[in-house]
Amino acid sequence: MSGNSGFMIDQETIARRVAELGAEITRDYQGKEPILIGILKGAFVFLADLMRHIDLPVKIDFLAVSSYGKSTESSGVVMILKDIVEDIEGRDVIIVEDILDTGLTLKNIVEHLQAKKPASIKICVFLDKKERRKVEIEADYVGFEIPDKFIVGYGLDYAEKFRNLPYVREIRPEEL
Ligand code: IMP
Ligand code: MG
Fold first, then answer.
1. Which residue has the least CA distance to atom 10 on ligand 1?
2. 163 C-alpha vs ligand 1 centroid, how far in Å?
3. Which CATH number fits domain 11-170: 3.30.70.20, 1.10.287.470, 3.30.70.1350, 3.40.50.2020?
4. Among 126, 99, 54, which residue's Cα sits nearest to residue 109?
5. SS3 string of 66-127?
6. Best mutation site among 9, 39, 95, 99 for ligand 1 pocket (most ligand atoms within 8 Å of CB)
7. pTM check: above 0.90
């Protein structure tokens, strides 16, 4: 998965893995109608692809939280910029996020959604930088475990750029 320009995951590899995750969720939620909650903005590309591989009557919603701004480091302070619209009380929720890094963002999101009394909450992340974790939180579904590099593409940005890359790659020093 790495070429001469650093770490990357190509389009075909992403498509294959996202299809597998969708099939796994379909199996795990048989007879249920989960609500997929995408975390804006980064998760919208992943969610769009993932939901088309989930063969269940799903609903979707979006939650927007504050991001890093122009930095590549998490502040640990998460602001809810836009709350979900659907009533999730008693429902099975799957949080869909682009990347699990320190875990600070997702921990805050889980607490925020837990207060709305869903029947269950699971976490599905496209990328997992396990070695970066600062708080105890694990995803139930992980697309790829990746090394400690700053990644862009497939919805992930640096200063709002690169979200449109159809693959993911490491940011280059001259782009920072
Ligand atoms: P955490 O709170 O440190 O887990 O950070 C999670 C959030 O930081 C994600 O939702 C991303 O928006 C952003 N983030 C963390 N690592 C990266 C990266 O490598 N590329 C792009 N965004 C990242
Ligand atoms: Mg994000």
1. 99
2. 13
3. 3.40.50.2020
4. 99
5. CCCCCCCCCCCCCCEEECCCCCCCCCEEEEEEEEECCCHHHHHHHHHHHCCCCCEEEEEEEE
6. 99
7. yes
Domain ranges, ordered by start, for the chain: 11-170
Nearest ligand to the CA atom of 162: 1
Query: Left if phi > 0, otherwise alpha if psi is -120 to 50, otherwise beta: which for 55?
Result: beta
pLDDT in tens, the chain (176 residues): 544 569 999 999 999 999 999 999 999 999 999 999 999 999 999 999 999 999 999 999 999 998 655 566 666 678 899 999 999 999 999 999 999 999 999 999 999 999 999 999 999 999 999 999 999 999 999 999 999 999 999 999 999 999 999 999 999 999 99
